[in-house]
Amino acid sequence: MLIEELSPPADPNLDPVIREPSLQEQETQWLPRDPPLGGGWVAPDERAPMAPAWRPPPPPMQPVRQQSQGLAIASMVTGILGLVIGCFGPIPGVAAIVLGWMALSRIKNSPDTNSGKPLAIVGITTGAVCVLIYTLLIIWWLLIVGVALGTS
Q1: What pTM did the predictor assign?
Q2: Distances (CA, A) of 11 to 20, 42, 74, 146
């Protein structure tokens, strides 16, 4: 029967006594070396690790929320009501014009936070039409009254 011996042969030069290290020994090669000077050649195994090739995308940008301009809406509603409901005279028309100009001024000063320019323009236009209609009615009424007083 053959038996294979698995242990290595004994080293004849092996000294079981552990010797003290001498001061003349060289540095071990496992310690990191001094960093190279800028622009110098660096061995591939000593280079700093590269950044990962893939990075996760940044989070999506939150859209800037524009607040609807309340003055512009008030201008438009007041101008339309001034045309439809005629019992207040030219007062809603004047209010619509003033509110519309104030809204346009705020939109011009800070367009990133205020919106509603079309609403303000509609309010100014309907307010001007309302004031124009009442101005023509007042002129027509004065002419009628003036003619009636002049003929009597």
Answers
A1: 0.55
A2: 21, 40, 102, 139
- 132: Cα separation from own chain's centroid: 43
Cβ–Cβ under 8 Å, residues 94 and 105? no
Facing residues of 100 across strands?
A: none
pLDDT tens-digit series, residues 21-80: 566 655 555 666 666 666 667 676 666 666 667 788 888 887 766 677 889 999 999 999
Q: How far apart are CA 119 and CA 4, in angstroms?
A: 99
Ordered by start, the domain boundaries in the chain are 68-151
| Token representation of residue 81 | 């009501």
Please name every residue paired with 68 in a beta bridge, in sequence order, or none if there are none. 115
